[in-house]
Amino acid sequence: MFRATLRQHYALSGVDLLVLDAYDGDVGPGDALTVALPDGGEASCTVRDLAWGSAMNATQPPLTLIVEGLGAQPAVGAEIRSAT
Prior knowledge:
Blueprint: E1 3-11, E2 16-24, E3 32-36, E4 42-52, E5 63-68, E6 79-82
Antiparallel strand pairs: 1-2, 1-6, 2-5, 3-4, 3-6, 4-5
C-alpha cells in the first residue's frame, strides 16, 4: 500500500506532476492511485513514470510522480494512496 502527501501539483499537456512531501510504501509505472480533492471527493490516476530527486542527508529523497488521467486540481496536503 502506497500513501503520500501532496506538496505541489502541476498540470501539463496530457500528464500531471505530483510532487510529494512525504510518502510510504512502493509505487511504480502502471500503478493506480486515488487522490483526495478539496470538495471531499476523489480522483483516480495511473502512474506513468516517476522521478527521484536528491538531497543531502535526507531520510526520504524527493519523489515526483508523473500521472495520467487525473483530470482534477488537488490541493496542497492532499492524501494520495494506492487504489487497491
